[in-house]
Design a protein that fits this description.
There is one protein chain. The protein is mainly α. Helix 3 runs antiparallel to helix 4, helix 3 packs parallel to helix 5 and helix 4 packs antiparallel against helix 5.
Length: 115
Amino acid sequence: MRNVLIPIAALCFLLLGGCQGGTAVKSEAPAAAKPAAEAAKPSLSDEAKNALAKAEADIKEAKEQKALWTTAEAALKKAQEAAAKGDSAATLKFAKTASDHARLGLAQRNYPLAK
């Protein structure tokens, strides 16, 4: 048993030692390609920007009044992700859903607790 453990331990030390010695080499090409990719990314339409701002304001108001639906918050996250990608259509769709659900949550507060 001892004869087997010593070679295994030595192999482990060699493998771990090999991982430690390398240094990372950074390439300048990806850094230079980044601005070109960002320049090619489509920008959001003004309508999408306004819808996203309105949805964020509606979500904030619903959260302050403790009337926020989780579906509204999830739709806002999707709208923000779509905005980061420059997808105006998806941003409009998800921002409208987020805003609608936030307003419905606020309206639900006015419902009676029981009949």
